[in-house]
C-alpha cells in the first residue's frame, strides 16, 4: 500500500507531467526551448548538482545544413546520489549522469522529457525501492517543474 501511495504522490507532484508507455516522463513548458533550458540549468546548479554538458541538437543539425526544431539536452548529476546506484550495479553508469531533453514538437509546444529513474534501472541489480531512486525521481520532478514555469 505504501508503494501505491508513494507512486501516486510522485505522479501528482509532477503535474502536468505524464509518462507514456515508453517510460518517458514529459512535462509541458510555458516558455521556448532556450528559456526552458536556461531555467533547467539554473535549477540544477541551484540544487547543488553539477552540469556536465548542454547539447544543442538543432545547432548540430544546422552545422551539416539540416533543419531540426529547437532541441537541447542537459546532462547533469550529483555524484553523492549516482555513485550509490553504481555501487549497487556498475552498469548503472550507462544511464548516468541524468539527462533531460527540451524540445519543440510539431505543434509548437515545448516539452521537457526524461526517463523515469525506476524504469531506467530496470533489469539491473538495483532494488526498485532504493532511496536514491526516490531522490532522483523527486529531483527530476522538481527541476523540470521549475524549468517549465510551474
From TrEMBL:
Alphabetized, the UniProt keywords read: Signal
Q: Which SUPFAM superfamilies match?
A: TT1751-like
Q: Does the keyword Signal apply?
A: yes
Report the residue ranges that make up the DUF302 domain in this protein: 55-117
Tell me where the signal peptide lies: 1-19
Q: Which InterPro entries did the record assign?
A: DUF302, TT1751-like_sf
Q: What is this protein called?
A: DUF302 domain-containing protein
Q: Which organism is it from?
A: Roseovarius ramblicola
Amino acid at each position: 500500500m505504501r508503494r501505491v501511495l508513494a507512486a501516486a504522490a510522485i505522479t501528482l507532484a509532477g503535474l502536468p507531467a505524464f509518462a507514456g508507455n515508453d517510460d518517458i516522463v514529459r512535462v509541458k513548458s510555458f516558455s521556448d526551448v532556450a528559456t526552458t533550458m536556461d531555467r533547467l540549468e539554473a535549477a540544477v546548479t541551484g540544487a547543488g548538482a553539477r552540469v556536465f554538458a548542454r547539447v544543442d541538437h538543432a545547432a548540430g543539425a544546422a552545422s551539416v545544413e539540416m533543419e531540426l526544431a529547437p532541441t537541447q539536452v542537459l546532462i547533469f548529476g550529483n555524484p553523492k546520489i549516482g555513485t550509490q546506484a553504481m555501487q549497487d550495479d556498475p552498469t548503472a553508469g550507462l544511464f548516468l549522469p541524468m539527462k533531460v531533453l527540451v524540445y519543440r514538437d510539431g505543434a509548437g509546444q515545448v516539452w521537457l522529457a526524461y526517463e523515469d529513474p525506476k524504469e531506467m534501472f530496470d533489469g539491473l541489480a538495483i532494488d526498485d525501492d532504493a532511496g536514491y531512486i526516490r531522490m532522483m525521481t523527486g529531483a527530476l520532478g522538481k527541476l523540470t517543474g521549475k524549468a517549465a514555469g510551474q
